[in-house]
Amino acid sequence: MATTVGPAQNTPRTTLAKPGLAPPAVIPPALEIWAPDPPTWGQRMIPKGIRSAMADLGLWQEPRPLKPSYHLIQVIEVLTRYGWCQSFDFSPTGRMCIRGAQTFLESTGHVTAIDRGKAVNYLQTQLARQGVKMRFWEWNDLSHNTFRGVEATISAASDMARKNGD
């Protein structure tokens, strides 16, 4: 702590030394697309056809589906924000596995079924490069896996997709 004299009042004022960088308390608007909020109860109750009509009238903004490389990065962000788990697509506490995060993103319109399938192919190709011969959701559940390992594999798959133009 340091004591200084304020210029206007000529009174002592105590200031704290600046702490190191801390993560923001709120997700910056530019990053919100990467880890979307779950749809509200009301949004889940509106059928897709009505949502599309509302979007055409400018009353609703549908999420923009992302390419496979961006979808894989978004999967990492969802797992970071809501938590990663094993053995469940969606755990009772709201955590998700890789497949659960993809399902969540597809259900909220952040990826199409076709681009999700492409992302899965890139993920499976990356696992094959690592010598893994099982489906990605089975690999996710292996007891020796950590979130950092899962994150690195998904990131490598995203890099591969980006290099291929997806």
Taken from the alpha-carbon principal axes, the silhouette is globular
Number of strands: 2
- Please state how the strands of the largest beta sheet are arranged side by side: 1-2
Q: Helix proportion of residues, in percent?
A: 40-55%
Question: What's the number of domains?
Answer: 1
The class by helix and strand makeup works out as: mainly alpha
Task: State the order of secondary-structure elements, H for helix, E for strand.
Answer: EEHHHHHHH
Q: Termini distance?
A: 52 Å
Taking Cα atoms only, what radius of gyration do you get, to the nearest Å? 22 Å
How many H/I helices? 7
* Beta-strand residue percentage: under 5%
Which terms would index this structure?
two-stranded antiparallel ribbon; 47% helix; globular; 166 residues; 7 helices; mainly alpha; disordered N terminus
Describe this structure in words.
It holds the Pfam family DUF6197. Residues 1-14 have a biased composition (Polar residues). Residues 1-22 are annotated as: Disordered. InterPro entries: DUF6197. The protein has 166 residues and is mainly alpha-helical. The chain has one domain. It is 47% helix and 5% strand. The protein contains seven helices and two strands; from the N terminus they run E-E-H-H-H-H-H-H-H. The chain has helices at residues 41-45, 48-56, 68-82, 98-107, 113-129, 136-140, 147-163, and strands at residues 2-5, 12-15. The protein has a two-stranded antiparallel sheet with strand order 1-2. Strand 1 (2-5) and strand 2 form a beta hairpin. Helix 3 packs across helix 4 (98-107), helix 3 (68-82) packs antiparallel against helix 7 (147-163) and helix 5 packs across helix 7 (147-163). The chain is globular. Residues 1-9 and 11-28 have low confidence and may be disordered.
